[in-house]
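Q: I'm writing up a methods section and want to include an example of the input and output format. Could you take the sequence below and give the corresponding predicted structure tokens, formatted cleanly so I can copy it straight into the document?
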Amino acid sequence: MTATLTSLPRKPKAAKRFRAFWRRWWHQLTAMRTALILLLALALAAIPGSTFPQRSISTVDVTAYFDEHPDLAPWLDRLWAFDVYTSPWFSAIYLLLMISLVGCIVPRLGVHWKALRAKVPDAPQRMSILPYHRVLDPGTDANQGRARAVLKQRRWRTEVREHEDGTVVIAAEKGYLRETGNLLFHTSIIFVLVGVAAGSLMSWYGNRILSEDKAYCNNLQQYDEYGLGAWVDETDLPQFCVTLDEFDAEFTNGGPTAFDADVTYETGGESGEYDLKVNHPLNIDGTNVFLIGHGYTAVVTYTDRYGQTQTLHQEFLSMDAALNSEGAFKFPDVNVDPETGAVDPDAEVGFDAILVPTFDDSTAMLLGSDPELNNPVLALTAYTGDLGLGDGLPESVYSINEDQIASGELEQVNDDVEVIGVGDAMTLPDGTTLTFDGVEQYAVLQVRHDPGGPVVLAGAVLLLLGLLPGLAVRRRRYWIRWNPDGTVETAGLNRNDFDGLDEECDELTAAIAPDYEPPGPSTDRSDQ
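A: Here is the clean output for your methods example:
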């Protein structure tokens, strides 16, 4: 009878090679060294985001960069230089870093959990090989019950072992909180990365200068500046409107001390009032409205050559801490013949202006040093001609178009800057006038929605909770053994670099055996 031997099917070599390749690269990716390299790479990859304007922050700045660098900007755009934080290469580094950290931390969590549940290791046979070792005299009063009580009182994990030869060992260990702190610290980095990613993709903000008795609604067209996350569309913004009823700023010694804005808001058919202050935002549908600044609005009236008037409320941007501010008044639709409707395209009027809240006419200085409205004046430079608003291109509302002045389309009317106070008027050569009616206050509001903020905050809390024990706690072990011959041995082992092991173990030994006298610092312990 012939027996046929059949061999077991072997797994394909290709599958083995693939698993070996995957296992090797997974170990490389989840190594802490790789995580540090990826963290450095992420920092380097973020440099273009602070070098070039970003679309998520200001599309106006990106457009201006294209105008200034028409040849370079398209190539940079192909490399995602204006969308760095949503680019494929930045996202790849970000994702690899998160995978590396998770793959590094999760196995350590399992190991740490097992260590917390495991028994304290027994003392080695030769305790003399440990960094700290003492042999007590046979008559030393080293009571076992006292030893357990002392170690328990000092929060050492203890384990009592009785061997067959009559040896009794109490093993103690302390400092598990150090590894817990290290794991919390590394976990906090993941929280921060997730929070920053969520904020970059799903957050949005808008800034609006709002004068008293004025209102605006939450849409992009009504913001002076805005930024949207990569996953945010204009239709995702909640619908609400805010009215600034009254604004008050208090000053002490030339500096602001308090801002207070009374606002009314409407959302979903409901309305309410809120006292908006710095660091006390108004929350509407998960969106916070912050008060981040203030300034002044100049009110002027222009009377053209036909006696028609236009009143303009123009916000001014502060130039310094004294709120000396710059702005402009533009009147493109003036000097129109009321009978014929004839429009002179060169009869448009504009004024470059500086608003000084407190003007000291006893000195030759134009700019004041006090931000309060004690003696406000306007320093005006008038221009007539074509303001350049007809081309449809966006331009600053706080200054006259310098290109129009340089091309001669706008001509300066007055040779010297003319200063006028409230109630005064500046008269142009054609008989038209600009009257300074007064000054109002405005508030700078920022509307922000950032779902990643709480996650980043949780990460920061975890970082602090993990950093303190990671730096302050030491992992160490201590053993005390009663031998059959009556001698008592104590030993200690440091799991981390720490110079105070001998002192701490001597203190424990002295607490357990009151008649034990620790050796002095000059004692030769080479034979111990």
